[in-house]
Prior knowledge:
It is built from five helices and 22 strands. By secondary structure, it is an alpha+beta fold. It has four domains: about 15-60 and about 325-394, conserved putative lor/sdh protein from methanococcus maripaludis s2 fold (Beta Barrel); about 60-70 and about 240-320, Elongation Factor Tu (Ef-tu), domain 3; about 75-100 and about 205-240, CATH 2.40.50.100; about 110-200. Strands 4-13-16-15-14-17 form a six-stranded antiparallel barrel. A hairpin with a 6-residue loop joins strand 19 (about 340-345) and strand 20 (about 350-365).
Amino acid sequence: MRFALTRPATVLVVSQFALLLAPTHLLAQYVAKDRNSVRIVADQTHQLEIVTVEQFSFVLQKSAIGQIAFNEDTSTIVLSPFSGRVTRLLANVGDRVARGARLMEIDSPEVLPPQNDFVTAISNLNKARSQLRLADTIEQRHRMLFENKAGTLREWQQAQAQLSAAQNDLRSAETAVDAGRNRLRIMGRSEAEITALQEKGAISRTIAIEAPIDGTVIARKVGPGQQVRSDSNDALFTVADLSTMWLKAYLPETDIAFVRIGQDIDVRVSALPEREFKARIVAVGAASDAQTRRVMLRSEVPNPDGMLKSEMFATFRIRGATQLSLAVPMDAVVREGDVAAVWVQQDNDQLLFKRQLVTIGIEQEGRIQIRDGLSAGQRVVARGAIFIDNEARQ
């Protein structure tokens, strides 16, 4: 529809210079319009940005919420292999510990028998060595007597049998010592402590409980003077490697076909809104929850600076395959409730723009997917679309 730009008594003359300087919000003075079409004057085209509808590769993605948790593959609980009383606590929650670092010491009578057995084994080893030296000397003497016709063959053979027995006794003693040393290692005794026990025979009732892995102490459930039991399953300490964390989430079962193990995802936590973490899906649940119809999804998130904490609330985006679709800049789409429209430049009259309803989809990188309503090659208004739409409503 076109409107005559006239007034009842006079004719308004507008110079070209005034048209060029006219602001966009005064466009109504120079256009003819109806609700679904607007015609502008040629000098106003520079105020609009006209773009061509083109194909764009949209990345299919899904979003969900989850929670940060400790990586259970790199964390472990610490139990006591002996019953006794805690005499010293050497680690607190938050401490970084190396493998073999002492977490606590306990006084336990259960550590005495292995030490006694080791001391006895050392004593038997020394005795077997002495017996071997004596048997070797006797065998050499009887051999020389026999070779010089001064001894009998029977005496030499008896000496050889005694030497062989002494050699077997020595091997048995050495095996017993090795077994005792290994038992002490399993108990948690260091090589220095075992060597001191071997040399001095000093037996101690105190035993140290050590960290089994490198990591951070994330829990401690024992106090000084407390009695601990070897048959209890209650963790005394929990140590975890915090260089990686888990993201646990429950994804609607309708989206499970969209994910796979090894897929990369983008993670954000509400406590650190300015940061984005990269993660990788490591497990997808084998069953869907009967109540929520959701499936457990677990991802591994690198945490080199330790900023991610357990129980943090997180959101994540799963990137999938790409989809080639028509797209326009987001400025080109004018929305009114659930209705979306664009202003299309007409091929036969480039000053005429018509309103076209469209079906929109994904928004990415400043572009919006057009699922229906436009064809490739059409030209639409990007910057200035909202102003044309406002003028069409007046």
